[in-house]
Amino acid sequence: MPLSHFPRRALRAAATGLVSAAALLSPGLHAQTNADFNVTLTLSGSCTIAAIPILAFGTYTAGRTTELTASTTASLTCTEGVTFTPALVTGPTVTSTTKVVTDAETNLAYTLAIGGATGVRTATAGANSVTINGTMASGQYGCVTTACAGATSNRTHTLRLTY
Questions:
Q1: Cα 126–97–137 angle (5° rounding)?
Q2: Helix, strand or coil for residue 15?
Q3: Taking all residues of the chain, what is their mean pLDDT, rounded to a whole number?
Q4: What does R_g of the chain's alpha carbons equal in angstroms?
Q5: How far is CA 41 from the centre of its chain?
Q6: What is the pLDDT of residues 119-133, one digit of tens each?
Q7: Domain boundaries 47-162, CATH class
Q8: What tens digit of pLDDT does each residue of 45-103 get?
Q9: What's the CA gap between 80 and 47, in Å, rounded?
Q10: Are 149 and 107 in contact (CB under 8 A)?
Q11: Residues 53/132, Cβ–Cβ less than 8 Å
Q12: Of 51, 39, 32, 55, which is closest to residue 134 (Cα–Cα)?
């Protein structure tokens, strides 16, 4: 039967099929090779401290018969698994979990202390915290004279994280 008797559509489909089959059978036309590779990545752990709210004792009445307490919580953002140790700076190169202070303006003594577990802590992913507790002993009378009121304030303290 001559080719002119076949519909054009059938001829096109047959030609396309022959070209596709020839491409599959042609050596080297679709050769493939694979190779694996490794990725290296280093993560440097860190912790940051957000602004720490004021530790506000409130009003201390001279001669008070009970201690006065207050606390504040520092918000931390740390890499999960980082170990850190919170401490209060007590001198140029000294830190401690407690700090005893006599306020220069009022002559009232108070103690600051890191709350919770002392020593090394392990961070969880994202939000972590450190509580700072303050205690003012009872029986203090302080000073309200101009000699005390003019003193330089020593009310700013520093929380340090070592990680």
A1: 120
A2: helix
A3: 85
A4: 37
A5: 20
A6: 999 999 878 999 999
A7: mainly beta
A8: 999 999 899 999 988 899 999 999 999 999 999 999 999 999 999 988 899 999 999 98
A9: 10
A10: no
A11: no
A12: 55
